[in-house]
Design a protein that fits this description.
The strands form three sheets. This protein has a seven-stranded mixed sheet, sandwiched between helices. Strands 4-5 form a two-stranded antiparallel ribbon. The protein has a two-stranded antiparallel ribbon with strand order 6-7. Helix 2 packs across helix 3. It has 206 residues and is α/β, with parallel strands linked by helices. The structure holds D-malate. The site of D-malate has 10 residues, from helix 3.
């Protein structure tokens, strides 16, 4: 996979895994990582799927309807890549906090839906339920923040609420933050993510 790895100044901090939105790139969320934790290492991965020139992490049949077979395969591919990256760059695989926006939040959600040990923490900006009808693994070791738009036309609020419930029922410590700026990733929501991360001292410190 194509990615950027920037070694942080504090090796005890989590590695921030950055997952961009549809049509984005591995460069998009770098300023966001800097805002969340300037001392943390950053692993920013570019999606492997090309949809009419727009990069994504998995295929979709049409907007909002996912190709579930592809989603499952790409989820596994990314999971395995994280193991390899941890070895290659000598970081603790168990110490990853994912930060995803839109399509990136959806593949991060899919990793949580498929693997108990995918992430220590995850910040999901404008996510949907990645896949329905799955029995989720026990997620008692993960903390998740969802940020969602009350008026988001792409990731409707009911989806975010359902995702919140499913993650909570699986044992994840889950929080939700609401915005009113459509599908946009707004400054106030990034600030909410920074506060959530900082308040979770087990994520922000050693
Ligand atoms: C998706 O396809 O993951 C969602 O519809 C969000 C997006 O447009 O990327």
């Amino acid at each position: 996979m194509n990615y950027i790895y920037n070694q942080g100044s504090n090796p005890d901090k989590p590695v921030l895994l950055l997952l961009h939105g549809t049509g984005g790139s591995e460069f998009d969320l770098l300023p966001l990582a800097e805002r969340i934790d300037p001392e943390a290492s950053v692993l920013s991965v570019r999606g492997n799927v090309n949809e009419n020139g727009m990069v994504r992490y998995f295929k979709r049949l049409r907007p909002g309807v996912f190709d579930e077979k592809d989603l499952v395969e790409r989820t596994k591919e990314l999971y395995e890549f994280l193991d390899e990256a941890a070895e290659e760059h000598a970081f603790d695989r168990r110490n990853i906090v994912a930060i995803g926006y839109s399509n990136g939040a959806n593949i991060a959600g899919s990793l949580l839906f498929h693997y108990a040990d995918a992430f220590k923490g995850a910040i999901l900006h404008h996510p949907m339920v990645p896949i329905h009808g799955l029995t989720l693994p026990a997620l008692s070791h993960s903390s998740v923040l969802i940020t969602a738009g009350e008026n988001d036309p792409i990731c409707p609020p009911e989806e975010s609420e359902e995702l919140y419930t499913l993650l909570q029922e699986a044992g994840a410590e889950t929080a939700i933050h609401w915005e009113n700026n459509g599908h946009q990733l707004s400054a106030t929501e990034i600030e909410a993510a920074r506060k959530w991360y900082t308040d979770h001292s087990f994520l922000a410190t050693d």
